[in-house]
Amino acid sequence: MDNELIYTRKRSVASSFMDCTAKLGVAHSVLMLQDNLTECFGMLKADNYRYKDVYNAFWVFTKTKVHFTRRPDWTEEFEASTFPADNVGFRTNINSIFKDKDGNTLITANSECCCLDFEKHRPVKLSNTDFPQDNFPLPVFEDKFEKFDFETTEDDFVYSQQVRCSMIDMSNHLNNTEYVKLGTNVLSANFLQTHEAKDLEVHYLGECKELQLLKIYKKEIDGRIFIRIKEDCRTVFEMCISFYN
């Protein structure tokens, strides 16, 4: 892959990124994708620090979709590449691909991002910033985001979690990856050890603050597991995960 918009670096599965399967964890993969995306935006001089100073704006990530061909093993080294695949007015799709040392695809992903005014929290046209406008690399992830349509009741309630300080990011809201961890935690260790993740899709629907109490619900439909997180009566996060077996 040869394009100035592509950010590539070597990564490995450290002990802090593996789960009970001794592989890159499902939730941990979203954290690693977020790290690569953040570093990519830094390379493009489109990070939140600069956009706050120059445009009084900041980035939010509204959706992420991940396909697992193979989750890399503990200590395994691989190449991680991330790049903007388009510029669609108020949003951009950011593609990522992880490849093993032999060039085989491990993980592909897409994140939908938009830029918001820091004061009004209204969308900012990307054409009003210096975010790339053209010459995008060919996408590596073209599956469309799904519109989730599932209902949950108190019968589907699994557990509750209060938002604590270690879960908060620099915006003083619950970090995106924490939602994915909370969602994945509806599954048991035994389930994860006997079921290999195939596809994951997450929708970030609202912000949560420290000390708020979240309720996590799980619904299984046609072999797929849907998760909803609510704060009081407000849905703040939805997720779907499917498995190979």
Side by side, the strands of the main sheet go: 1-3-4-5-2-7-10-9-8-6
Outline: globular
- Number of separate strands: 10
The CATH architecture of the largest domain can be given as Roll
What is the residue-mean pLDDT, rounded to a whole number?
A: 97
Question: Number of DSSP helices?
Answer: 4
Q: Total domains, how many?
A: 2
Under CATH, the homologous superfamily of the largest domain reads Hotdog Thioesterase
Write the H/E string, N to C: EHHEEEEEHHEEEE
Low-confidence stretches: none
CATH class of the largest domain: Alpha Beta
Largest sheet: 10 strands, antiparallel
Radius of gyration: 18 Å
The end-to-end distance, rounded to whole angstroms, is 33 Å
- Measured as a percent range, the helix fraction is 10-25%
The assigned structural class equals alpha+beta
Strand fraction band? 35-45%
CATH topology name of the largest domain: Thiol Ester Dehydrase, Chain A
